[in-house]
């Protein structure tokens, strides 16, 4: 069912939709990107209520994108946490990196291993593993053999083509991502926006359903993206100096929360 505030409402572009949703959905403080990670300071019901003190490229969200395919959010989170605890147990820590430094995070161990200076070590470790080494850790996410293979392959390809995660985060293109097995348009956009903090609007089934019930039908993924980003630069009037990439992430979050709250169903043609 379409919420009353979207019924009989003229929506000419993404900015119009953002203005309406912003009145009804809060997706965290000014540091929040909606989708939480291990450096989020507070998470409630899958929403990043208090974001990390500094937004930075995050390898864990690249993995989360793959683990989250065709499964519930909770199962993907559990799998990612299991995977990162495995990394925590098998990667040597910096002697000066005291666990007590992360005592304010929901999970100090995961916050520690998610720090930027461990990301290359994680890639190196993952690239050397066999699928069966991590399959038990991510079993709950479903398709665990396929996902284990794709995670390992992604790590190997990042090392081969970019050497370091920093190089990957600054140089990778959407075309490169789409050339990787198991990464489609939605996953590529999620990696670019949420993991790498790029200006990239994510389009998913929640987005298509919401727009469809508003009478807005499109031929393909890029048409929806173009509609949502049209005039979105005006959002700086609402959010001040917040980066456009973060505004896009929060916008996507509001769309998802609205679609989930009102159980907006797929249109029948």
From TrEMBL:
UniProt xrefs under Pfam families: HhH-GPD
InterPro entries the record matches: DNA_glycosylase, HhH-GPD_domain, HhH_base_excis_C
Tagged with keyword Thylakoid: no
GO molecular function, one term: metal ion binding
Residue span, HhH-GPD domain: 107-242
One record GO biological process: base-excision repair
Domain of life: Bacteria
Key words of the record: 4Fe-4S, Endonuclease, Hydrolase, Iron, Iron-sulfur, Metal-binding, Nuclease
Signal peptide bounds: none
Alphabetical list of PANTHER family matching this protein: A/G-SPECIFIC ADENINE GLYCOSYLASE/ENDONUCLEASE III (PTHR10359), DNA REPAIR GLYCOSYLASE MJ1434-RELATED (PTHR10359:SF19)
Protein name as annotated: Endonuclease III
Organism expressing this protein natively: Helicobacter trogontum
